[in-house]
Specification:
The strands form 2 sheets. The protein has a 4-stranded mixed beta sheet with strand order 1-4-3-2, covered by helices on one side. Strands 5-8-7-6 form a 4-stranded mixed beta sheet, with no helix packed on it. Helices cover 20% and strands 27% of the residues. The chain is built from 2 helices and 8 strands; from the N terminus they run E-H-E-E-E-E-H-E-E-E. The protein has 124 residues and is α/β, with parallel strands linked by helices. Strand 7 and strand 8 form a beta hairpin.
């Protein structure tokens, strides 16, 4: 069996708000609360468990998505001026989408300071 990341904890200020932000952003499903966690199903192998018991600790999470998912994400970002996003770390939150190479990519900052990187072609 290959090594598969099954779940990880995302430390946030409000577990329900943190889970809903990511789920709405990427069209994911929030699962029923499990103990102290609000899980978000990323795919059949991975669940992110949002936990607010110890406050927010910003992290970086990168997602490879298909074109349709990215299209929906891009539309949401354009409609919601409260979401900070940008084309790359050096450009800051410039509200642009990166179109380098064959794919598209974007960095998004959530209300707790987490950086979500979303791209259509895996970086090499």
């Amino acid at each position: 069996m290959a090594v598969v990341l099954n779940h990880t904890v995302v430390a946030v200020a409000d577990k329900h708000a943190g889970a809903r932000f990511l789920a709405d952003l990427l069209g994911l499903r929030v699962l029923p609360e499990a103990g102290p966690f609000v899980p978000v199903e990323v795919n059949g192998d991975l669940v992110l468990e949002f936990d607010d018991r110890h406050g927010a600790t910003p992290g970086h999470y990168a997602f490879l998505v298909d074109e349709q998912t990215f299209d929906a994400l891009e539309e949401r970002l354009r409609r919601d001026p409260s979401i900070e996003y940008g084309s790359g770390l050096k450009q800051g939150w410039d509200r642009r989408i990166s179109r380098a190479g064959e794919g598209r990519g974007v960095y998004i900052r959530d209300p707790d300071g987490h950086s979500y990187e979303v791209f259509t072609v895996a970086p090499v």
